[in-house]
Amino acid sequence: MQMPESPYSFPRLYASQHRQQLPDLQFYLALAGQTGSDLLELGCGTGRLSLPLVAHGMRVTGVDLDPHMLAFARQEAAALPEEQRSLLRLVQMDVCRLQLPDRYDLVLFPYHSIGHIGPGTPLQQLAEGCARHLRVGGRCVLSLLQPDDELCRPDGSELRHLERFCDPDGHDIDCYESTRYSAATRRLRFDWFYDLADDREMLHISNELFLHTGEEVQQACMAAGLQLERSYGDFDGSPYTPDSPELLQIYRRFH
């Protein structure tokens, strides 16, 4: 079996799998309607969220560290109408070292991407960067993964068929997933195996997320001058409970 690859080395595959996964789009659009239309998206990747946001008239600055993902996002953005392209700016930058000239109404860190940020100093740097780039009255939304017991088995979950999706050429791709959780490191490892419907060996991609608690994130944000305004358990606006599939924390900068 080949060594696992990074998902960010395959932006076309990533985009094909995730481009239709937009349960959060209407949630963020509604929040922008309450807060303002100048948005900063952290971890924008291939533009899964940024491109639909500008299609709805939002002004978006997307930040990502990975050059392959950003190159794909720029390629996708080139196909947008000019009035939408003019609303989008893509920047390669570490989200823990944000240094942008503008301030924003809304800062988003969606799709559980905060799990790529380590605990302690990196988390605090992230919170301070979010606060620094918000206008007074602006909001910051952080999306935290809330895995169930099956995903967090220390002995590893059984390999299961996750989904079938089509690549841009219309070929069906089957994705299989297994996970393993380490209580010692608080990291959840995902292993995905892609059947690319040709004679090649299955493509093995792996990724890890650090599982921050809501309390840890809140402490970092409060130290950065952000106040927790409300928490949701899903994108339908339902209250957060320990059994919720999501933890969506909305912070506000009041000063």
From TrEMBL:
The lineage of its organism: Bacteria, Pseudomonadati, Spirochaetota, Spirochaetia, Spirochaetales. Residues 40-138 form the Methyltransferase domain. It comes from Spirochaeta africana (strain ATCC 700263 / DSM 8902 / Z-7692). The keyword Transferase applies. Keywords: Methyltransferase, S-adenosyl-L-methionine, Transferase, Ubiquinone. It holds the Pfam family Methyltransf_25. One of its GO terms (biological process) is methylation. This is Methylase involved in ubiquinone/menaquinone biosynthesis. GO terms for molecular function: methyltransferase activity.
